[in-house]
Amino acid sequence: MKIKPLSLLAAPLFCLANMAFAQADAGKEALYVKSLAATCANCHGTNGRAVVGSSVVSIAGLDRAYIVAQMKAFKAGTRPATIMHQLSKGYSDAQIETLATYFASQKK
After folding, report:
1. Given this model, what pLDDT does residue 27 score?
2. Checking CA distances to 73, which of 34, 40, 90, 100 falls within 20 to 30 Å?
3. Residue 102, φ and ψ in degrees, nearest 5
4. Over the chain, what HEC string results?
5. For the segment 16-59, what is each residue's pLDDT rounded down to a tens digit?
């Protein structure tokens, strides 16, 4: 049986193409998460680390479940705030989960 050289290349090329698409998607996802987190930087600092001496809480390294609970409380209006109750309403539950995961993974 004669094997065609192109058929030997098809499977590896297909796998490489899938890996390239997966990497591109991962890159887009990482960029999306970073840009979403950047919306918090004005108040909470880069990567959630507030400026020392600021009245704003650093959110880097906080527990993920705590961040989610607080964001949902702001969104529902059950936690008092100056601006967070307004800002939190602009995030979907999925975005809140994404932000919580990101900030929980940051070093304090």
Report:
1. 84
2. 34
3. -60, -55
4. CCCCHHHHHHHHHHHHHHHHHHHHHHHHHHHHHHHHHHCCHHHHCHHHCCCCCCCCCCCCCCCHHHHHHHHHHHHHCCCCCCCHHHHHCCCCHHHHHHHHHHHHCCCC
5. 556 655 566 778 889 999 999 999 999 999 999 999 999 999 99
Closest Cα to residue 65, out of 98, 89, 37, 100? 100
Contact call for residues 82 and 67 (beta carbons, < 8 A): no
Q: Is 45 left (phi over 0), alpha (psi -120 to 50) or beta?
A: left
Q: Which residues contact 31 (CB under 8 A, 6 or more apart)?
A: none
Tokens linked to 20: 């390239």
